[in-house]
């Protein structure tokens, strides 16, 4: 889907701190996925400022690789796709419905982007996703095999089938919730392929619709194997690997910009107000 020669692979790998091999194999996929997930924060600041973020490769490199910024799912997974394709992986974009807090998968639109990655020498493809803005986000790719538990970056995930009326098999990504000691659904998807043109439409809708949560308040997220840190409006939440949760509310704009820089590694654009 992209021309690897037009993508600055060296700059991308340097930004995420990947010093490992570049052969298209499972070790490389896992390493690049984890490095990306730990290095590039989730954020919606373009949508908060009233514009749709560009998904053009040059603009993603300028913003996320060279500009001290992160991005949300369309940006994150487009950038990951470009990097993986430059490394020689066949990649198919997918779209899913977020089920966290939903009555059913059908009650939500397909507004989340993820990737199906073919790994040379492996019998099954992998689900890759570095752009899910929630505690159950993947840090490592998971095999597209029903019921197989996978652990990566200190988190546990599995894929389970869901009954539905359509002709294609419906998968649900589940994350293990240590506090509840149970599996929790994150999003549901089929293996129907999508294109960059599809995501241009989804991206515009999510980033400009006044009913979209991304146009209403700031969402920042950063993960490490030890903790998950998120800012939802004024609420800063730290969830440790053992399930311990600490919350505090930010009180002023200067504090919010300092937290964005120091805790999330995000350079907030001049003129943008983080706290409403």
TrEMBL record:
InterPro entries: Arylamine_N-AcTrfase, Papain-like_cys_pep_sf. One of its GO terms (molecular function) is acetyltransferase activity. Gene3D superfamilies: Arylamine N-acetyltransferase, Cysteine proteinases. Transmembrane segments: none annotated. Belongs to the arylamine N-acetyltransferase family. PANTHER family: ARYLAMINE N-ACETYLTRANSFERASE 4-RELATED, N-HYDROXYARYLAMINE O-ACETYLTRANSFERASE. This is Arylamine N-acetyltransferase. It comes from Streptomyces alanosinicus.
